[in-house]
Amino acid sequence: MDEPLDPKRTVAELKELRQLTADDNGAQRVAFTKTWVATRAWLQRKLGALPVEIHTDEAGNLWTTLAGRSDRALLIGGHMDSVPNGGWLDGCLNVLAGVEILRRINAEYGGRPPVTVRLVDWADEEGARFGKSLFGSSACAGTLEMGEARALRDKDGIGLPDALREVGIEFESVKKSGRELANAAAYLELHIEQGPVLLDLGLPLGAVLGTFGVERHAVTFHGQAAHSGSTPMNRRRDAFLAAARMSPEIYGIAERNGGVCTIGSCSTRPGIVTSVVEECRITLDQRHLDPAALARMLAEAREAAGRFAAQGNVTVSWERIWQIEPIPFNDALIGLCEESIRETCGTAHRLPSGPLHDAAEMARAGVPTVMMFVQSLRGISHNKIEDTREEHIELCVGAFDRLASKAIAWVSGGR
Predict the structure, then answer these.
(1) Were 68 and a residue from 15, 113, 127, 130 both cysteine, which residue would form a disulfide, CB within 3.0 to 4.6 Å?
(2) In this structure, which topology does domain 213-324 adopt according to CATH?
(3) Is 35 helix (H, G, I), strand (E, B) or coil?
(4) Separation between Cα atoms, residue 98 and residue 114, nearest integer Å
(5) CA-CA distance, 322 to 331, in Å (whole number)?
């Protein structure tokens, strides 16, 4: 008799992993550390009973392959690394649900499914140590900016290439990992939502439409320093005042266009209480799933900055920090994901992802991709209080397994 899917086992293994790799402050599975290496060894022991081939690619991604009757491959992905003091589900839920699905597929097909099924644990999704997220998946997708990554240093001054060498990875070869995608026909990823949308709707699961595009800029207003006691208010060229006037306008722009934005930092010069602010620098993050709306948000922000600068008799300059286009997922797979959720819990909801995920890199590489979200309690992650109801974890493993079955049929049909 086929071994049935056992979502309760996934919950138990997640708790076992928490016991092994967390302390009172939360999860400590930071990539390229001893705890991360031990985590992977633990994961491989969990996979030991399956007739699979396991290897690490040139970028440090761990691949587990259940060979099928076709070389066309269904990929299931996640990441075992965490941020320091992180939550017990972020990343590892994806992988351990994938382990359980591999067990079910192996039992159902006697070790030989219609297509090859591969589980990948991406290396350093979080970017916690070097500040560069999606390292392993972007290397595999071919989008990693090698010059930028080569120059990255951690807080102790250790370079990323040197840290990689400590765990057996040669930095200059990481893009060779792209050969792993040669037969990739579909990519599936399960993740906690990390936000409050499903929680506020009272729904356990959602089908993800894609990841937001991001425009991230430093906006600097340039005024004139002057004595704060002797300078009349009508004679001041106050850079901070222009930035302050812009701030509520930025949030209005996001609301009007259906996006999100954040002013994440503000710094001033000369930064003393006895001087009018000569220079005020704010950092602006704008996100939207629709590229036209994202471009409109940026254009409106630029117009607002210029308007408030003129009002305050100051000037303004812009510096792009980072940008990525919106990344939509595959329409057919979104439909299969939604169908799997409805079959599992009756109601599904489609939503975008604000955070980036490894799935975005697979979509950028041209692999048909979809994600499934499970509700996050309090809408909080990257925090030791991160949590999801156990019954929702069990539901998501069941729904994700349904999606995997539908995706196998979709890939088998030559899609």
Answers:
(1) 113
(2) Alpha-Beta Plaits (3.30.70)
(3) helix
(4) 17
(5) 27
Q: Do 212 and 363 touch, CB atoms closer than 8 A?
A: no
Alpha-carbon distance of 287 to 91, in angstroms, equals 22
State the residue for tokens 């117009």. 303
Token couple for 23: 């302390």
In this prediction, residue 2 carries a pLDDT of 47
C-alpha distances (whole Å) from 199 to each of 78, 130, 205, 291, 385 are 22, 32, 10, 27, 15
Domain positions in the chain: 7-211+326-412, 213-324
Give the pLDDT score at 414: 66
Is the bond preceding 270 in cis, omega lying within 30 degrees of 0? yes
Find the distance separating the first CA and the last CA of the chain, reported in whole Å: 31
How confident is the prediction for the chain on average, in pLDDT? 96
Q: How far is CA 312 from CA 64, 266, 284, 307, in A?
A: 60, 18, 20, 9
Describe the crossing of helices 7-21 and 92-109 by its angle, rounded to 10 degrees: 140
Mean pLDDT value across residues 370-383: 96
Q: Write out the two tokens for 323.
A: 């940008």
Q: What kind of architecture, by CATH, is found in domain 7-211+326-412?
A: 3-Layer(aba) Sandwich (3.40)
Neighbours of 265 (CB within 10 A): 10
- pLDDT surpasses 90 at 1: no
Check if the beta carbon of residue 325 is closer than 8 Å to that of residue 213. Answer: yes
Within 10 A of 180 (CB to CB), how many other CB atoms are there? 20
- Give the mean pLDDT of 250-266: 96
| Structure tokens, 168 | 């057996």
